Amino acid sequence: MTEGPTDHTTLPGVDDADATALERADIAAVDVRERAVSYRDVLDAGVDRETATVLRREFSLPYSTRFGEGLADRSDEVTGLQDGERDWVAASSSDWEELGVREYDPVARQPAAIWADRDRPTPVTAVSGVGPADADRLADVGITSVRQLSFVDAGLVADLLDLNVMAVRTWRFAARDAR
Do the Cβ atoms of 149 and 157 come closer than 8 Å? Predict the structure, then answer.
């Protein structure tokens, strides 16, 4: 693997026996720290399973680096998949453009714009039966989002805005369904 510091006992949980196993497998401590090896590599070297698990967690080691060629081979290597999931991964090796999936362009939208869309509250006009005039009245008492409307005290809002309490309850239940 990589040349570098070979004092394996500086790795968390590694005792002399594990250090010897890593040395025999030509795995340097720096290989573990820089994730140049996988959990499976460490286990195959003869390191105790508990110690290998500590190293995997501490250094975020991948489970395996031996995935073969293409997604079909990789789907056979990944453990914990159900048959349907394994078939889906294998089928995913087809050309995405043929399936009509647009290519992802990370520059197309800045992260701030993406989060702004997610953080923007859904206006109360999204609730069935709440029109623009109703939204303006609700805003007068501080209710501007579907989430806020879904938690209102219908009796209090009805009294404040001189509305029928049943209408406000209907909006509240519709808002809960819309969230």
Answer: no
